[in-house]
Amino acid sequence: MARLHEHQGKALLRQFKVAVPRGGVATTPDEAQALAEEIGAPVMVKAQAWVTGRASMGGIKKAATPAEAATAAKAMLGMKVKGFTVEQVLVEEQLDIAREFYAGIIVDDREQAPLVMFSSVGGTGIEEIAAANPGQVASTHVDIESGLQDYQARNLVRRTGIDGRLQRDLGGLLVQLYNVARTYETRAAEINPLVETADGKLYAADCRVTVDDYAVFRHKDLGIEIAREYDRPPTALEKIAYAVEANDYRGTFYFIQMASDFEQGEGYVGFHGAGGGGSMMSMDAVLRQGYKLATFVDTSGNPPASKVYRAARIVLSVGPIDGYFGSGSGVASQEQFHSARGLVKAFLEEHLSIPVVIRLGGNSEDKAVDILQQLNGRIPAPVEGYKKDDSPDFCAERLDALIEAGQLRDVPPPPPRPEPQKPYTFETVTGGTITYDHAICATCKNKICVQECARQILSLNDEGLPELNITPEEAKKGRCVECLACEVDCLLYGAGGGHVHLPIPGLDEHRASLQNP
Amino acid sequence: MSILIDRTKRVLVQGITGREGMTRTKLMVGYGTNVVAGVTPGRGGQEVEGIPVFDTVEGAWEKAGPLDVSVLFIPAPLVRSAALEAIDAGVKLLVIVPDRVPIYDVLSIAKRAKETGAKFVGPNTLGVLSPDKAVLGMMGGQAASARSWFFQGPVGISSRSGGITSSMAYYLAREGIGATTLVHVGGDVVVGLPHPEVMHLFEQDPDTKAVVMFGEIGTSQEERVADLIEAGEFTKPLVAYIGGKAAKSGTRFSHAGAIVEGGRGTYEGKVERLREVGATVVESFMDLPRATKEVLASLGL
Q1: Of B76, B96, B121, at which residue does a domain stop?
Q2: pLDDT of residue A228
Q3: Would residue B3 count as lying in a domain?
Q4: Is domain A97-222 classified as CATH 1.20.1110.10?
Q5: How many angstroms away from the CA of A296 is the closest CA of chain B?
Q6: For position A125, what pLDDT does the model report?
Q7: Where, residue-wise, is CATH 3.30.470.20 in chain A?
Q8: Nearest CA in chain B to A126
């Protein structure tokens, strides 16, 4: 879910005429002071961070004067709360609170409908309220097509024992809260506490909104950068990984960084799973061997080889891992040689010197493992590929054995790629560039690229050299699916004239910054 | 028998002319599925794997005859419209393969389905496969692989994870245990046919003698299956594995949804609840075949 800060949620509420305390966002103590002056009354200073329980962390303070507001802001800005750094504070007028309620809209996966919840008691978590005072909590499902009707909302409030004008006002507010939720496609939209002030008005004192990741694309106005659920801010590598995913809808690439600042020999493994369930299940196998995960990756859903390559490069940027372990469900429906090529390209480029065990079972597993095991002798690392008849535990044991043995092959790094003598180039859909050095291709005996090209978009020209049989524009639009055969198979089985350059925005800079902190 | 799909069902492929549509139509036809029509707006008159393509589902129904199932290979933002089109035309079972379908779109599809008595599998599903009969979606990848991996037998398979569906079926097959139907429930939070609904279907299928289920942390599907067992609504032996155990040791893979169910959704919660009602829950995924063999033996199979 993509989370919004309190002030962002409140902005949405304002749009829909739900009253929120007067206030604004400050990023410096001076700004906080200016806001407090403008408000001209005692204020609340509230740290903007995606956490609960801010008050107990010093994230919510009262300020009687603008000077106090500045002091409070100073203490909060830059503070770390549960891993988040506070970059903004919300400065808003204090409310003369007479009563607190809870109002929330969530998606009930069981009933397949939105659920409105209201409690005549607010302030603490809805679970506690519901457990302690069931008579004070009421909920109702909403018809997705006709929305929350005014009378439904009023009856909801009535069931908690509230009548008259207050019932009417709360009902109206619930309808508007639902409209916010529906318009912005929230997973959850909560106002807790919803406050009645001494003069009988209703205000949303706090607001938590999370937006459905899969709907973010059609709400650009929300300015959500990363549509992923993290309960801490994304790391630099996670942002880099997310950018790869956001730029390429083919298949899935999910990445969590699980460790940082570790040393070689501490037992951290780069984990690269395939498929949600397969990854979780394979992860258990690695953990059972006593290793720790530096990364959790899921590349699945039939991703192109280029995506798996980028994922591997990102895993290999997390730090000095002791081994690389890949495993999915074991019996994949997708053709596995695409992933194999992606891994091979990455491992060759990195001239990998840590043991690799990949369980690549499923369709075309023989071909996939053949490609993978060609790495042996080309890089220092020992590489083992396994298929569907090999269990995750067995593969994890193999990784452990290889790490323990610590045997590397004496393979010097290859010389840097020379400038192509006779380049033939075209571009790809994710901003890559494919180059065939026709001077090298001329020496190639099998022109394997043509046969192995996943979309058969290559043919031999009159000189017997590989070229596109479609236009470069069509290739760039996506007819070239970046299967990497024209680099990997070319190198392993042909003359080695093909090269696919795939940019990973931010990665080089990130790695450089690790070298020179 | 089997559930959801066999050779008698007449199948439509929506998005048939797209890359996935074409490849998986080949799989389905090759495996024996009775694909009778395809729809891609604007491509009416074309053919894919010998299957006629129409511009609309209504048009397909008119010209090619009644349609029992539609399999969707459509970009996520367009799924809702395509699904509603199929339901409105009278299709009673949809298999929604694409990932990333917005939740509110799924809710909209769910409502229309409920109103018309239609069902849907997914979204974000590899599909449904009845060994030696037919397949919907992309399970197995290629017809030849599907034929070599799966065979008919007494076990129903239901999984929230795609690759795992085929894995479980394959590892069971390796031990001589065949399946009636493999169902990938789908990876999303809101799915058309969650585990409990699949159990209802397996309960009514006389050929299914036991069920193997792959569950995950999050949502309340597995707990609801336990409820069904307790209520005597699902009476066949259940063998289960729950993925996400490592989530308790500080790794973050859990979903939201705790509010509705009051804390349900944890690995421990699911395992305990299922064991409480007599289901067999294995600790390690690779123990599933052995545990299933024991259950079948106790049934005299």
Answers
A1: B121
A2: 65
A3: no
A4: no
A5: 9
A6: 76
A7: 97-222
A8: B259
What three-state secondary structure class fits B297? Answer: helix
**A416 cis-preceded (ω within 30 degrees of 0):** no
| Number of domains within chain B | 2
Q: CA A305, B126, B86 angle in degrees (round to 5)?
A: 120
How many whole angstroms separate alpha carbon A469 and alpha carbon A459?
Answer: 6
- CB–CB contact A107 B126 (8 Å): no
CA distance B278 to chain A (A): 23
Q: Is A286 exposed, middle or buried (0-12, 13-18, 19+ CB in 10 A)?
A: buried
Among candidates A108, A329, A388 on the partner chain, residue whose Cβ is nearest the Cβ of B161: A329
Q: Which domain holds residue B23?
A: 10-121
**CA closest to B241 among chain A residues:** A281
DSSP run (H or E) holding A294? strand A292-300
Please list the residue range(s) of chain A that carry CATH number 3.30.1490.20.
Answer: 22-93
Are B190 and B291 contained in the same domain?
yes
| Interatomic CA distance for residues B108 and B83, integer angstroms | 10
Helices (H), A453-505: 472-474, 485-493
B248 and B147 in a single domain? The answer is: yes
- B:48-67 residues touching chain A, CB 8 A cutoff: none
| B243 DSSP 8-state letter | E
Rounded to an integer, what distance in angstroms lies between the CA atom of residue A258 and that of residue A237? Answer: 11
Q: Which residues of chain B have pLDDT under 70?
A: 246-264
Best residue of A331, A394, A482 to probe chain B, by most B CBs closer than 10 Å:
A331
User: Consecutive 10-residue runs of chain A (517 residues): their mean pLDDT?
Assistant: 88 96 96 96 93 83 96 94 85 96 94 96 81 88 97 97 97 98 96 96 95 90 73 84 88 88 95 88 90 92 94 97 94 92 98 97 94 96 96 96 95 93 97 97 97 96 96 96 97 96 96 79
Virtual torsion, Cα B55, B58, B64, B68, nearest 10 deg: 120
In our burial notation (b when 16+ CB lie closer than 10 A, e otherwise), range B105-143 reads bbbbbbbbbeeeebbbbbbbbbbbbbbbbbbbbbbbbbb
d(CA A512, CA B187): 37
CA distance B1 to chain A (A): 24
pLDDT at A82: 72
Asked if this assembly's ipTM is beyond 0.95, the reply is no
The residue out of B121, B138, B169 marking a domain boundary is B121
How far away is chain A from the Cα of B63, in angstroms, using its nearest Cα?
A: 32
* Residue A98 per-residue DSSP state: E
The answer to whether residues B180 and B292 belong to one domain is yes
| Chain B contact set for A1 (CB, 8 A) | 256
Same domain, B111 and B152: no
Q: Are B129 and B136 in contact (CB under 8 A)?
A: yes
- Does residue B290 sit within a domain? yes
Q: Is B156 on the interface with A (CB under 8 A)?
A: no
Fold of the domain spanning A236-405 = Rossmann fold (3.40.50)
Residue extent(s) of CATH 3.40.50.261 domains in chain A = 236-405
Question: What dotted CATH number matches A22-93?
Answer: 3.30.1490.20
Chain A positions touching B170 (Cβ under 8 A) are: 330-331, 388
Q: Could you tell me if B115 and B143 lie in one domain? A: no
Position A56 scores a pLDDT of 82
> Which residues in chain B touch residue A293, judged by CB atoms under 8 angstroms apart?
251
One domain for residues B108 and B186? no
Helix H or strand E encompassing B144: helix B143-149
Q: pLDDT by residue (tens digit) across B13-51?
A: 999 999 889 999 999 999 999 999 999 999 999 999 999
Q: Considering only CB atoms, which chain B residues are within 8 Å of A108?
A: 260
Q: Kindly report the CATH number assigned to the domain that includes residue B41.
A: 3.40.50.720
Q: Are residues B151 and B261 in the same domain?
A: yes
Rounded CA-CA distance A102/B210 in Å is 45
